[in-house]
Amino acid sequence: MTWKTFLLELSGFAFNFIRQYGIWIIRITLLWLVVGSLSAPGVRVILENPSQEVDAVRDHVCVHTRLIDEVPEWVMQRSLQLVREMGADTIVEFFPWAYIEREPGQYSWGQTDKIIRHAENQGLRVIARMGFVPYWARPDEVDDYTTLNYLPDESYDEFADFVAVFAERYAGTIDHIIIWNEPNLAFEWGYREPDPQDYVRLLQAVYEPVHEANPDVTILAGALAPTLEPEGSPNGLMDTLYLEQMYAAGASDYFDALSIHTYGFTNPTLQDPADDRLNFRRAELLFDIMAEYGDSETPVFITESGWNDHPRWTHAVRPSQRVQYTINAFEYVEENWTQVEELCIWAFRYPTPALSYPDNFTLVSTDFQISPLYYAIQAYAHGEEQEGTLWLSPPTE
Amino acid sequence: MVKPSYRIRLLISGLLLAFAAYVSVTGMVDWYENRPPTIQEAFPTGTMVIGIDPTFPPFAVDNGQEIYGIDIDLANELADRMGVNVRFVPMGFDGLYDSLIDGQVDVVISALLLNPARTQDVRYTQPYFDNGLVLIADTANIQAMSDLPGNSLALEYGSNAHSESNTWIQRLEPFDLMPYELPQYALDAVRLDDADSALVDTTTYLLYQSQHPEWESQSNRVTNAYYAIAVRYDREAAWIWVNATLGGIIGDGTMQEIIERWFNQSSNNNTSDDSSSCFPLDCWNNIEPGIMPLEVAREEITAIFHSENVISNTVFSMEFQYEGNIMALSATDGIVTRIHVNIPEGTLQLSELIERYGEPEKVYGVLTSCARTIVFPDEGLIVYLNDYDDLEQIIDTGESISTIEFMAIEQTQNWTMDDSWQMDWNGYGRYCQTASIDETATPDR
Q1: Do B163 and A372 touch (CB under 8 A)?
Q2: Residue ranges of the domains in chain B?
Q3: What total number of domains does chain A contain?
Q4: Residue B267 predicted with pLDDT over 60
């Protein structure tokens, strides 16, 4: 059979097929169009043009977002629009190493690119928090059960390589990178006893390659959790002790800014700090240690802060107190803590509700119900003066 | 017709018998596997171990001697009907699920919100209480949020009710929001005709209503927040028994009786002689307002608050509102050392206080996150202030120029002054927890 006869037979077959089944082809096509028109349309995400800008008058309002686990892109965009409209100019976002470099040298940047694209489009600065170790950089689980927070010494260089690649890719967009989260808690240190010397070795491994990758980068160290755990505790190490031991181990050469977490728990904003007390102004104890080691000019970023108003959590306050204390905290930072560049509230919104006390840290619920605290921060960020209390006096008989 | 041979008949009979045996055995196996579980399979030890957070009245309260409340009565009713013993394991709210998943407890009965994200680990029973938001009004004109335009709505500032109202106000014609510091004030506003309606959670409303039985109000549900019992996922037999028994308790009206019993406690003035089993506010109703003989107070209060956990450095303190009075007390070693009442509610010039009672002896520092405390020892008076600056001024200068706004809150606090002075809050009441205390703030040390 020649090509010519083959083509003739094929066209004949196609003609007969269409003549015999053409009516069904038309019916099926029409059915597909009808059914397709009934299904819910996808949400089309279009970047705003021109890009937005934050128009707030306060420049230290920041929130910690939780976008990396967010699936629909419109949710990501809507979250960041709300952040901008609230008046925050900066977000802290977690970029897990285990999500991005799932296999050695193979990077998956899709989700990260999306977050950065939308943050830029809303005019927001991004502080990147790095952590979460991929399986291949952890010890064999058969021999040594580990968690995503377990970074063995021998993987410090691999982590540093990853952070350098990240820093280079987003240079000019992300110029602030936090190295690890709350290393003074055993949970965050892979269920090992926290070791400030180890952490300084990690900073040392990261500092130079990341600066080479992005000369404008600011390396944030610490992200220390407020805790009173004494030396030798299996749960963690007191933040003040940890910071002192960091400095004693030579940490000051390996970071450009200090990241701290300062929660108010059940105490008002202005309560005096004390060694044995967890409150908002506990940060001042850390500032004292910085000054003691000649580091008082180093910028500080409060990358987690806030109060919780869950009715059943013993570390919570009333909803009205939560709002008032938070606004007081912003005012206090502005008036008193000149070295603090950002006060970031934990957390803006969760991808899924916890249906427990962690939900009462958020400013916007998973289904985008906006809390009164959001509006109070918005008013503060835009320079609206609070006159008197936020609420009415109790009714009288 | 040819008759089958004996061997053939024998073979057929054998096959039929084998088939019958097979059907019987598989049927029995099937029945055994699908039969309802026995109570021994549900609770092999004969005891139902229950995780409970006893700091959430009226669902569960621990007075040191016993735990009581709606969840306790429900658990006891379940145990009675199932024929098992019951043992409560008190714990913090944030440890409830962990204890269940670790197998430390069999079930959690603790005003637990249904959480779909937990259903891989736990099975929930049907709900037994809905603590969602309710719209309260004393007129039939307001029955739904859509009736609010043109009216005013009172609520607790910053609360879920506030968030919900913000959502509604974007959908409807404008209505006035009246935020108050406490949800009780929002209800006060409606009762006293300052507001047309209020939005609060169901528990707050029912407690308030029981304290103001003369007030005729209507409630209409706006949101749902269901409480259910949780059982570990692999304890299916236990779940079947608990869920089915709970269904019976709800179905025959017993659940409603339990709920009404606890929410009506505080309106039954002077009806309970058993102070050890009454709801705290109800117990306090046995106390006459006014200056109370200390001995009488000791007997009353010790019965309620004496605790084996109270050691020499442990202090109980409580303040609450009762019929227009603020009452306050303090106790050491489980014995009440100071109690005073008859402080007018509302505002009071501190100068009047000092004139009446003399200079305060002691400042308790930050005793609570929403109030500070001064003590007038001669009169045994404890005053809670909610304005730090005012207090500083008084202490530093002795000037008595400030106005005190007393707080109408209901709470107890239990704190242990250990070496590090860390506070262990185990309070009755949901607010004003304390995390730390100054050494200078040592009452009766």
Answers
A1: yes
A2: 1-35, 40-130+226-263, 133-221, 275-441
A3: 1
A4: no
Interface contact B435-A276, CB threshold 8 A: no
Q: Residue A390: inside a domain, yes or no?
A: no
pLDDT for the residue A1: 66
pLDDT tens track for A365-395 = 999 999 999 999 999 999 998 777 789 999 9
Answer yes or no: is A12 within a domain. Answer: no
B398: closest CA of chain A, how far (Å)? 22
Contact A317 B431 (CB under 8 A): yes
How confident is the model at residue B358, as a pLDDT? 52
Helix (H) or strand (E) holding B415: strand B411-416
The pTM score is 0.72
What distance in Å separates residue A318's CA from the closest CA in chain B?
Answer: 6
Looking at CA atoms only, how far is residue A288 from chain B in angstroms? Answer: 21
The verdict on domain B133-221 having CATH code 3.90.70.10 is no
- Taking a C-beta distance cutoff of 8 angstroms, is the pair B342, B405 a contact? no
Q: Which domain holds residue A186?
A: 61-381
B388 or A221, higher pLDDT: A221
Q: Which residue of B has its CA nearest to A396?
A: B346
ipTM: 0.80
CATH 3.40.50.150 fits B40-130+226-263, yes or no: no
Residue B213, helix vs strand vs coil:
coil
Probe site for chain A from B182, B323, B433, B437 (most A CB atoms < 10 A): B433
Alpha-carbon distance values, A351 to A92, A175, B397 (Å): 15, 26, 53
CATH number of the structural domain spanning residue A329: 3.20.20.80
CB contact under 8 A, A369 and B164: yes
Q: Which of B156, B157, B326, B387 to mutate to test the interface with A (most CBs of A within 10 A)?
A: B157
**Measured between alpha carbons, how far is B262 from A39 in angstroms, rounded to an integer?**
50
Residue A393, Cα to own-chain centre: how many angstroms?
38
User: How far apart (Å, rounded) are the C-alpha atoms in residues A192 and A144?
Assistant: 12
Q: What tokens were used for A125?
A: 């600065």
- pLDDT for A38 beyond 70: yes
